[in-house]
Task: inverse folding
């Protein structure tokens, strides 16, 4: 077997020629035919006793084609790996030099492929290379808002004697006919209502300051302004019955409960951060400030890498590509692509390709690798962030580990974790080898940076 590569003068493309001779495929073809003979069911012959001549006549051409194509694929990609060729996309059959293959008459087969070659990249970074780095200022207002959120999340419901707007009222509701319950009318034993959700102010006012065991007469149809779903849920009826309820109902109040926010005390500190982790209000605020900074860290690093991308592409200089081969490959790789679509999107594709090559170059040149523990640590961090969204900041390690293991079961999720861990390695390396042009910004200012 002969394989060779001829590069173009501009080194953006090459032609790989491969010649497969009889000595390359004769052995595998003979082995496959013997296997066919053992399994073939041909009328008039016992299984495994069909003459080899007949087997060759029946299956010889297809077996030859299969074995040659298998050799072609294996040898082509082995050659690319061993020669360390940085191929963009996939090898494509040459449109001019490739001769027609005839498995009936040919004994030697020549294949010719066009390949797009990645350009050589040389990037030198030092502390004179500036990259913006935005540090989000965690101000007192953000801390206090977070404290308010924790106090609300960890509050308790307590009984009350008279109704306030945010209270929850439970009782018995009955449809009225005049001043008396309507015979056969709607009645709900365990109705629940909160005045703050009553849309009509006049109807809402009827509940304000009402007390336990008192009776409020109101019109649900007016209270909810004809909203069928809300009225049906309140009265526990079907929506098609709502139109019949445009009248007064009595609400006998059996229970009033009021949500009371948690006090800023040790009990709250323990609920948020775990028993004994925080002792004072000042320590609580300091810990919250640290948590908020930690939550912003991934976004800060993302913005840093986005700005570094522009610098890296510029540093790489004018990279040349075999545009025609790339467009051919994009068209062949995805049946949904059209020449018009590829032409329209090609500038962005090339820009993304430049960054990908630069990134891969830095990772390889600086031996940045992801270990198993890196992926596990990232998975735990992702799980921890998900719990934190629901105010759960002290999740036991074994639960985080279980969530991490669940992520590993999904191949796509696992690969995403590997890619993110490698990107984190690159971010860490860049921070050490460029000058960080640190700018402290507010949360609003930082969020607006993504609108630019």
Result:
């Amino acid at each position: 077997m002969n394989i060779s590569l001829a590069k173009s003068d501009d080194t953006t493309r090459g032609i790989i020629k491969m010649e497969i001779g009889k000595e390359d495929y004769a052995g595998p073809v003979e082995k496959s035919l013997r296997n066919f003979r053992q399994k073939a069911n041909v009328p008039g012959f016992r299984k495994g006793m069909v003459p080899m001549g007949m087997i060759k006549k029946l299956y010889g051409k297809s077996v030859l084609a299969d074995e040659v194509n298998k050799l072609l694929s294996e040898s082509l990609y082995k050659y690319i790996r061993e020669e360390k060729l940085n191929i963009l996309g996939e090898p494509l059959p040459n449109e001019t030099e490739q001769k027609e293959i005839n498995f009936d008459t040919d004994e030697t087969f020549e294949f010719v492929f066009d390949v797009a070659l990645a350009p050589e990249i040389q990037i030198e970074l030092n502390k004179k290379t500036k990259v913006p780095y935005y540090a989000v200022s965690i101000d007192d207002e953000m801390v206090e808002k977070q404290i308010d959120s924790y106090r609300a999340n960890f509050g308790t419901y307590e009984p009350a004697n008279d109704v306030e707007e945010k209270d929850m009222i439970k009782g018995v509701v009955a449809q009225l006919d005049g001043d008396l319950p309507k015979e056969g009318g709607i009645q709900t034993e365990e109705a629940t209502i909160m005045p703050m959700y009553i849309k009509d102010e006049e109807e809402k006012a009827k509940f304000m300051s009402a007390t336990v065991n008192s009776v409020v007469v109101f019109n649900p149809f007016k209270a909810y302004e004809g909203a069928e779903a809300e009225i049906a849920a309140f009265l526990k009826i079907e929506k098609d019955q709502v139109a019949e309820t445009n009248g007064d109902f009595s609400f006998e109040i059996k229970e009033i409960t009021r949500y009371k926010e948690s006090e800023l005390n040790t009990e709250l500190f323990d609920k948020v951060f775990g028993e004994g982790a925080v002792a004072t209000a000042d320590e609580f605020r300091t810990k919250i400030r640290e948590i908020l900074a930690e939550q912003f860290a991934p976004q800060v690093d993302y913005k840093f890498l986005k700005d570094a991308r522009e610098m890296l592409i510029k540093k790489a200089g004018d990279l040349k590509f075999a545009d025609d081969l790339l467009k051919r490959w994009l068209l062949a790789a995805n049946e949904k692509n059209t020449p018009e679509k590829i032409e329209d999107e090609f500038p962005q594709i090339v820009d993304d390709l430049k960054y990908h090559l630069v990134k891969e170059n830095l990772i390889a040149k600086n031996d940045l690798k992801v270990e198993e523990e890196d992926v596990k640590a990232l998975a735990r961090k992702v799980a921890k962030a998900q719990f934190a969204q629901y105010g759960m900041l002290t999740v036991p390690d074994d639960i985080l580990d279980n969530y991490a293991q669940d992520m590993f079961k999904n191949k796509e999720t696992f690969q995403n974790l590997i890619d993110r861990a490698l990107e984190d390695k690159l971010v860490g390396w860049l921070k050490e080898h460029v000058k960080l042009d640190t700018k402290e910004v507010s949360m609003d200012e930082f969020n607006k940076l993504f609108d630019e």
